[in-house]
Design a protein that fits this description.
By secondary structure, the protein is an alpha/beta fold. It has five helices and four strands; from the N terminus they run αβααβαβαβ. The chain has a single domain (about 20-135), classed as 3-Layer(aba) Sandwich (Rossmann fold).
């Protein structure tokens, strides 16, 4: 948040900027025995949704990128018993990240992308459609009823 607050004013002044927040899968956010990691990622996901709305029309986009499951990183200890070759490899993040920070993704904001679902054989826009969804699971959330203002 501190870094974002430091750079967003200059991005909006220039009329161009890309913010890509890395979160985690919903299941990981809800893992038992992990009361700090999951909630902090859920908060980042919600912040990303709010920022995308707040920055709409400024030329600054805000999106979320996640690997899409258990990933071969130091977050998974060697004692966990996983065959590291069968885990998602971090390289799945490269193609969607490169596209998200490009001019080609200038109209894409408030989206969540799963690196593991990005198909590099497809044109980037088609790969994004296949790998993307609204940020913060807004497509499955029930929005609260808000009283109308008179």
């Amino acid at each position: 948040m501190t870094l974002t607050n430091a750079v967003v004013p200059e991005m909006t002044r220039q009329g161009w900027g890309r913010i890509v927040n890395v979160t985690t899968s919903l299941g990981t956010m809800l893992n038992a025995g992990n009361p700090t990691y999951g909630p902090s990622k859920a908060a980042l996901e919600a912040l990303s949704a709010i920022m995308a709305k707040d920055l709409e029309g400024t030329g600054v986009t805000v999106n979320v990128l996640v690997p899409g499951g258990a990933t071969n990183t130091p977050m998974i200890s060697g004692e966990a018993g996983f065959d590291r070759a069968k885990l998602i490899q971090p390289e799945v993040m490269v193609a969607p990240l490169v596209w998200l920070v490009s001019d080609a993704a200038g109209k894409v904001t408030g989206r969540r992308f799963l690196g593991v679902r990005w198909d590099p054989a497809l044109p980037a826009e088609q790969a994004a459609e296949k790998a993307g969804a609204p940020v913060a699971w807004t497509s499955i959330a029930t929005l609260p009823i808000t009283p109308s203002q008179s």
